[in-house]
Amino acid sequence: ILYSFNLKRTLYILHYSKCIHCARQLYGFDGELIIEELLLNGKQRMSTLLVKVYERLIKAGKDPQVHSLQSIKESFKSLVSAQFLQRIVITETKSNMPGIIDEPITNIDQIPELTQEGWKYLVSNQQQEESNEPSAKKFKTAAPVFGDEKVFWKVNFQRFFAYLRDQELIQAFTNRIDQVKFS
């Protein structure tokens, strides 16, 4: 048995709270939960992430009209366009072991569109949860193909670090200018 220890990934854990707080300030509660889910799981598909975040919002007692799947998807798109989330593709290798490929810069903000069948499935589950039907009345169907099976997303720590560094610099310049004004 061979074990490995990823020191860089372990040190990133120290910055989780800063990343979550930053996402909440910029993108609200939806953005915070998206980043938190990705930090907990490492990488996830967009469709899985939308469902998990929506379920957590409902469990937290948030209004389903305000925090819908569409609003969560918009927050996700905003995080991707600001490059706080990074796209990765899982490919099969010859030894049937999955390989992770970081996407080139040109494809980094392309969000795969969910198939109509997949989106209808997510929305129907959302409406069932909103109506609070007993589980016996909910119909069981197999999960459809969503269209994002090989596309996963992860947190782009370098972008968070750059944003936080920029904010610290702005704060330092502001404080210095205020000191010069009153001197």
- Order of strands, widest sheet: 2-1-3
Query: What distance lies between the first and last C-alpha atoms, to the nearest angstrom?
Result: 66 Å
* Structure annotation, total helices: 6
Beta strands, count? 3
Shape: globular
Biggest beta-sheet profile? 3 strands, antiparallel
Topology:
Blueprint: H1 7-12, H2 16-41, H3 46-59, H4 69-81, E1 85-92, E2 98-102, H5 116-131, E3 151-155, H6 157-181
Antiparallel strand pairs: 1-2, 1-3
Helix pairs in contact: 2-3, 2-4, 3-4, 3-5
In short:
By secondary structure, the protein is mostly helical. Helices cover 55% and strands 10% of the residues.
Task: Kindly list the characteristics that best describe this protein.
6 helices; 3 strands; 3-stranded antiparallel beta sheet; 183 residues; single chain; mainly alpha
Descriptive report:
There is one protein chain. By secondary structure, the protein is mainly alpha-helical. The protein contains six helices and three strands; from the N terminus they run H-H-H-H-E-E-H-E-H. It has a three-stranded antiparallel beta sheet with strand order 2-1-3. Strand 1 (85-92) and strand 2 (98-102) form a beta hairpin. The protein is globular, with a radius of gyration of 20 Å. Residues 134-139 have low confidence and may be disordered.
